[in-house]
Amino acid sequence: MFTGIIEAVGSIRAMEARGGDMRLHIATGKLDLSDVKLGDSIATNGVCLTAVALPGDGFVADVSTETLTRSTLKGLKVGAAVNLEKALMPQSRLGGHIVSGHVDGIGEVVSRETSARAVLFRIKAPNELAKYIAEKGSITTDGISLTVNGVHGAEFDLTIVPHTVQETNIAGWKPGTTINLEVDVIARYLERLLLGEKAADAKGDGGISMAFLAENGFMK
After folding, report:
1. 77 and 172 Cβ atoms separated by less than 8 Å
2. Are 160 and 121 in contact (CB under 8 A)?
């Protein structure tokens, strides 16, 4: 588990295709690896990766075809900046929100503008994720825990303060940039709970629809 508070910005040192999936060598910059051991998890642009080697300047991780399909990692180039966070320790402050490191979909930056010292972004999420995104709720973008400041259908607004711009890869975001999205895990579980006994019959599409809500007394 993670908090969505980025600890360092690293970079892709090498990418190696291996039997249909990929091995990444990630240079970790200022990230303290003194307490990291083989098998530990490090979130990389919001993707939970397992360290399979620690060469000294960073870590090496294998990325499955499932992860390559669901995230932006497949499109990164050598030298690309990536947000890094080590796994949450029991005694750590939960400065962001509960983040699993499991990407739900890929979003796209629609617009970028400034407001005083802040940077305003509008992000387009996949349509199927729109129901999980709420104004003033939490969302994880490239591993960063952020507050949603407005919702417009499948698009949502973010207001980024200067510190976050400086300490993450957000500085490089522009219209057309694709980013990893993870919705609030509580919304995911709430949806499943609403299905009740019908959860076992769900066909993998979430199961909650307007018809379902009306049928079960959630709408009039």
Report:
1. no
2. yes
